[in-house]
């Protein structure tokens, strides 16, 4: 009987490290390109999303997410789910991994891989825009690669920023987004904004801008000027260019061309900074293939634990 591992959040996370994980993401992109597919089911405002991926040589994963907007009023999380990981050899179920563990590490690790390649190694001031769950994950991830950095947080609702800062020693809250952007070496943004929050006129030579929050065609976190001033990179052409407003809207309006996007992770050798004054912009689009890479890394570390 094939061993099936059940990996919960806390015990699973205890086995992981951010540098090792981003190295695993890079290695995953050396394998054949993933086959990916998403399916949606709806009942009123409730949603079931299944994201599936198959990478030859790594295996198969199905990440199921339930989104029930009425849950918070009952004291329950709005988003729940799980990840099923299958063997590439015989298709047998190998593991059930906590949904929130995979999502946290996939999302923040995706951005960190780009920052390790594109941000200046001497970056010391990191601005987090957005005090949600992802903001906490981003603080943990960036702290691993930039251990001497000072972190600043800006959030549209100041009380939420203060609550997050109270939980994270050394994290300071910014009142003025423009001033905080101008002062940062790295800006990492994870908001639900549909209107751009970050203005390209605020950007300074040498900065790295990491955009995470937008995931729908009508969502953007940075304006057209930011796109035109920066060298643009994405994690996957397939999950960003035609699907997310951050890239889709300026492409459709002619503000940028497809050629303005330097590379995705399947050309990771092109993720380089040409000069200290480059402004680099990375769009984190996610995707089921990254959930698969994250789940495989989590299972490998789980089985290697002492």
Protein described:
- By secondary structure, the protein is of the alpha/beta class.
- It is built from 10 helices and 14 strands.
- It folds into 2 domains: about 5-100 and about 290-305, ornithine cyclodeaminase, domain 1; about 110-285, 3-Layer(aba) Sandwich (Rossmann fold).
- The protein is about 35% helix and about 25% strand.
- Strands 9-8-7-10-11-14-12-13 form an 8-stranded parallel beta sheet, sandwiched between helices. The chain has a 6-stranded mixed beta sheet with strand order 1-6-5-4-3-2.
> Might you state the CATH topology name of the largest domain?
Rossmann fold
The helical percent reads 25-40%
Looking at this structure, what is the CATH superfamily of the largest domain?
Answer: NAD(P)-binding Rossmann-like Domain
CATH class descriptor of the largest domain:
Alpha Beta
Strand order of the largest sheet: 9-8-7-10-11-14-12-13
Contiguous uncertain segments of 5+ residues? none
**Tally of distinct domains:** 2
The CATH architecture term of the largest domain is: 3-Layer(aba) Sandwich
Q: Give the beta-strand count.
A: 14
Total helical segments: 10
Mean pLDDT: 95
Secondary structure category? alpha/beta
Whole-angstrom Rg: 19 Å
* Largest sheet entry: 8 strands, parallel
Percent strand equals 15-25%
Give the end-to-end Cα distance, rounded to a whole number of Å: 23 Å
Topology:
Blueprint: E1 5-7, H1 9-13, H2 18-28, E2 35-43, E3 46-55, E4 59-67, E5 79-86, E6 93-98, H3 99-118, E7 125-129, H4 133-145, E8 150-154, H5 158-167, E9 172-173, H6 177-183, E10 186-189, E11 208-211, H7 224-229, E12 231-234, H8 237-240, H9 245-253, E13 261-263, E14 280-283, H10 288-304
Parallel strand pairs: 1-6, 7-8, 7-10, 8-9, 10-11, 11-14, 12-13, 12-14
Antiparallel strand pairs: 2-3, 3-4, 4-5, 5-6
